[in-house]
Design a protein that fits this description.
Blueprint: E1 4-9, H1 15-28, E2 33-37, H2 42-48, H3 54-63, E3 65-68, H4 82-89, E4 94-100, E5 113-119, E6 131-132, E7 139-140, H5 147-163, E8 168-173, H6 181-193, E9 200-205, H7 206-215, E10 222-225, H8 227-240, E11 248-252, E12 257-261, H9 278-290, H10 294-310, H11 324-333
Parallel strand pairs: 1-2, 1-3, 3-12, 5-10, 8-9, 8-10
Antiparallel strand pairs: 4-5, 4-11, 6-7, 11-12
Helix pairs in contact: 1-9, 1-11, 5-6, 7-8, 9-10, 10-11
């Protein structure tokens, strides 16, 4: 059988250690991937003088799928966000951020199962029209929403709901104030919702969503929204299930998909072997599902669930004392 090749971006800070943990688990689960490693972030800047070399972009394009650790974009100096650059370059329009409760994480809620679907290329994150007065007296940025972009992400959300047997999609907006941009997004999402009468549709203003997520998270199933709102809401959702260490992310386009840990590179704990690798392991599960490798995905998910529920070998962020290596080995033992 020909091995499937995936591009691996180890990332910065804790990235290399948690990505190595995920790969060790993929191998133990019998996935038989060929790993093509590529540089991005600070390691690439040091080697090549740029954060995202063309060779890395070419390797991602060649393999169509990538597993990515957290990357650091230096603040200031004219550096553009690496994540935003990747999303734009490959037109990764859908950001898929699931959060699921795991027993043993000591989170505030049980039975959380929410997917936030965030439009990934438009809105305030597009970087359009960013200017600042020379005397720093004012600054401007543009938010651009297109009919095509809003329809595409809404279709993605409803198609996912049908595929996964979900019951409800909540359209999140601020159309009462942002009548042009958020208003267009809401109108288009409503049009798409009419094509899926079997799925319950709910509309909520973003601030009300945040309050209700904290008080009544069980009311949510799939959330679809614009870029900035989705960024904030998905982090809030991560807080419901134990923090960003338990939250994976997928960036999906027509040709390419990149799966990642959604948290930062945590340079303060880099090299200490204490980081929770779950975010990138769960991202690897998303990658497997994208490749229709459901058996391996379920095998790894069950092993994570069992390891956390046992409560013997869990990392410090989840109130345990296990190292990254010990936690990884415990998951492999439970495969």
């Amino acid at each position: 059988m020909t091995q499937r090749s995936i591009t691996v971006l180890p990332g910065d800070g804790i990235g290399p250690s948690i990505v190595a943990a995920a790969i060790k688990i993929l191998d133990a689960a019998g996935c038989q991937f060929q790993y093509d490693y590529a540089d991005a972030g600070l390691s690439a800047l040091e080697k090549y003088g740029e954060l995202l070399p063309q060779t890395t972009l070419d390797l991602i394009a060649k393999n169509k799928v990538a597993l990515k650790g957290p990357l650091t974009t230096p603040i200031g100096g004219g550096f553009t966000s690496i994540n935003v650059t990747l999303r734009k370059h490959f037109n990764l329009y859908a950001n898929l951020r699931p959060v699921v409760s795991f027993a043993g994480t000591q989170s505030r809620f049980e039975n959380i199962d929410i997917i936030t679907i965030r439009e990934n290329t438009e809105g305030m994150y597009s970087g359009a029209g960013q200017t600042r007065a020379l005397d720093n007296s004012s600054a401007e940025a543009m938010s651009i929403i297109t009919h095509e972009g809003a329809e595409r992400i809404s279709e993605f959300a409803y198609q996912l709901a049908v595929k996964e047997g979900r019951k409800k999609v909540t359209i999140v907006h601020k159309a009462n104030i942002l009548k042009s941009t958020s208003g267009l997004f809401l109108e288009v999402a409503r049009e798409v919702a009419l094509r899926y009468p079997q799925i319950e549709t709910n509309e909520m203003i973003v601030d009300a969503v945040c309050m209700n997520l904290v008080m009544y998270p069980e009311r949510f199933d799939i959330i679809v929204t614009t870029n900035l709102f989705g960024d904030i809401i998905s982090d809030l959702c991560a807080g419901l299930i134990g923090g960003l260490g338990m939250a994976p992310g997928a960036n999906i386009g027509k040709e390419v998909a990149i799966f990642e840990a959604v948290h930062g590179s945590a340079p303060d704990i880099a090299g200490q072997n204490i980081a929770n690798p779950c975010s990138v392991i769960l991202a690897a599960i998303q990658l497997l599902e994208h490749l229709n490798m459901q058996d391996q995905a379920e095998l790894i998910r069950a092993a994570i669930k069992k390891t956390l529920a046992q409560g013997k070998t869990i990392t410090q962020d989840l109130s345990g004392s296990a190292s990254t290596t010990e936690f990884t080995d415990a998951i492999i033992a439970n495969l």
